[in-house]
Every structure is written in structure tokens, then in C-alpha cells.
Amino acid sequence: MLEVKHITKYYGKNKAVDDLSFTVKNGEIFGLLGENGAGKTTTFRIIMGLIDASLGEVLLDGKKIDYNLTDKIGFVTEERSLLTKLTVFEQLKFYGVLKGLDERKVEKDIDKWLEKFEITDYKNRKIKELSKGNQQKVQFISAIMNNPKLLILDEPFTGLDPINVKMMKEAIYELQKKGASIIFSSHQMEYIEDFCEKLVILVKGHSIVRGSLKEIKESFGIKNIMLRGKDLPIEKIKKIKGVIDVTKVKGELEIKIEDKLVASKVFDIVKDYDITKYDVVEPTLNEIFIKKVGEYNE
Predict the structure, then answer these.
(1) DSSP type of residue 51
(2) Running DSSP on this structure, what letter comes out for residue 126?
(3) More confident residue, 105 or 19
(4) Please, which pLDDT band fits residue 81 given cuts at 50, 70 and 90?
(5) Are 289 and 189 in contact (CB under 8 A)?
(6) pLDDT at 227 > cutoff 90
(7) Cα(274)–Cα(270) distance, rounded to whole angstroms?
(8) Which CATH class is domain 2-216?
(9) Listed residue (216, 291, 155, 209) closest to 22, CA to CA
(10) Which of 102, 159, 198, 239 has the largest CB neighbor count within 10 A?
(11) Between 160 and 59, the higher pLDDT residue
(12) Is the pLDDT of residue 74 over 90?
């Protein structure tokens, strides 16, 4: 289990991280979100022991993270961190040995990893000759080949097509089943909704939203009604107290309402029309992110 306890980080007078706390249990995928410059990268560096926090501490399985524990951590960065003049085999062998794995075992395992990610044909190709997507696969393999206790994923799907995203998702779920603690960061909120049960949203190093995704959506208040039908009375719907906005989305009306109580008022207006769809749905994480971050920055 990863425990981040009240960490604060100053760069001179600038506070990059402000009293941040969260835990990631074994077998849990946790979302760490924020705008560019929100403090995510600094938080990652503190967790991995690359820099020290000004205040607070980080524990992995109850122990302070140092060189004895870093071999149990995997990290996939948004930017490529590969040695481009090496071959794929040389790159993976280098990282495997660097993580303390037995050299002979690493050599045997590399073929399994390459086959799993369908890049066996590139084993003896130099990294610089690979597409961005295949480079990302190599980077991902290098991060997980030691079966890490803690895996940090920062925009891991950059440059990948849907087929390769699916392949990488399956590998992440396998690690989750093995009990790894996983931190997932992405600006693509649909991935966060797919993976994460709990999350934190940072603004200027400060946590403005935290908790389970389900609770965050329930407490947000604003709901959406997705409505489809013929000749719907849009102007009447707009006039209902508690209706925030009405927009057309892919042939449907998306009606934003203040709370679920307003849904019955909308239904009373449209029930006699030819309706083929009427769903009250939770707001998306993208909506919550935009509103909460916008409110904080006002």
C-alpha cells in the first residue's frame, strides 16, 4: 500500500505541492488529475524518491521509499525516456538488470514480453527506428517487467491506437489483480472513469476534489437528462426552474438539471410526446473537472 502523508514541496517561495495526502491500496487504481503545472510531476518525483518533500512523508508498505524500494516501482512517463540508439532487446535488458533482475532471466523473459505486445519482429531494431506507438510499448514493458509493487502511469496511452490501448489496459488489469498499487494520470477523462475508483484533482498543488468517483459524482449535484423524441418542446423545457442548459448532442437533447428532483418536472412536460429515450445520467468526470477547476481559478 502506498501512503502519501501531508506532503508539501517548496521551490524557493513557490509552493508546488500543498499538504497533499492520499492512499493507494494493494490492487487499487488511483487517479491523480490536474491541469498542466498542477503539481502532478512533482508529486510523482517525491513518491519515487527522486526529490525530497519539504514536509510530510511517503511510505510503501509502511517503509520510506529509498534505493531498497525503488526496484519495486515502475514508472511510465508521458515523454519518451528511452535510449534511442539501443535495440529493443538491449533497452529492455538494460532496464531489467538496472531494476535488479537476474540477467539470464531477463533475456528469457524479453521474448515473452515482446510476443505479448506483438512486437517480436522489432527485437533487434533500434528504438529510434520504431513508431511512437511501438516505442511506448517498449517503455511500458520496461516499467512492468519487474512486476512492480507500485506502478505510476502518466499519460500511458500517448501515441497508441485503440487496439494497442486495449492491449495495454489488459496488462494494467493483470498487475492490479496481482496486487500492485497503481497511480493513473491522464487528461483523457474517459480513461480515468474506466480505471479509477478513487481520485484527487489538484490545482496549484492543492487538492480541490478527492474521494471515490461514485461519491464525487453524487455530490456534484448537477445531473443530465438524455432525451430523444419527435417535435420536443425545447422552449418549454428551458423555462422549467432548475433546468440549467439544453443542447443538442448527436440527435438527442442533453438537458442539464440542478438535481434529480427537476427530472420529474421535465418528464411531466414531455410525457405526452413521442419519446424514444429518457435517461437521467450522472455528469461526466470531464464536466466535473472543468467546473471545479474553473471555480477554483476564478
Answers:
(1) S
(2) B
(3) 19
(4) confident
(5) yes
(6) yes
(7) 8
(8) alpha beta
(9) 209
(10) 198
(11) 59
(12) yes
Rounded to the nearest 10°, the torsion over CA 75, 80, 82, 87 is 120
Backbone angles phi, psi at 287, to 5 degrees: -65, -45
What would the grid cell of residue 17 be? 505541492
Domain ranges (residues) in the chain? 2-216, 222-282
Q: Where are the beta strands (DSSP E) in the chain?
A: 2-11, 14-24, 29-34, 55-60, 63-64, 73-76, 150-154, 181-185, 198-203, 206-212, 223-229, 243-249, 252-257, 275-281
Q: Specify the DSSP class assigned to residue 98.
A: H
Do 2-216 and 222-282 have matching folds?
no
* Nearest-angstrom CA–CA distance, 247 and 263: 16
> What is the per-residue pLDDT for 259?
85
Between CA 230 and CA 29 the distance in angstroms is: 43
Nearest Cα residue to 210 out of 222, 221, 198, 220:
198
Cα angle value 211/212/216 (rounded, 5°) = 80
DSSP state of 29: E
Residue-wise pLDDT tens digits, 244-268: 999 998 889 999 999 888 999 999 9
For residue 272 the three cell numbers come to 405526452
| pLDDT tens-digit series, residues 7-50 | 999 999 999 999 999 999 999 999 999 998 899 999 999 999 89
Q: Rounded to whole angstroms, how far apart are CA atoms 20 and 35?
A: 16
The predicted structure's pLDDT at residue 298: 67
HEC assignment per residue over 173-193 = HHHHHCCCEEEEECCCHHHHH
Distance CA 43, CA 276 (A): 48
- Residues 254 and 284 sit within 8 Å (Cβ to Cβ): no
Least confident of 54-58, 154-158, 206-210: 154-158
User: 270: which residues sit within 8 A by CB, 6+ positions away?
Assistant: 227, 229, 232, 233, 237, 278
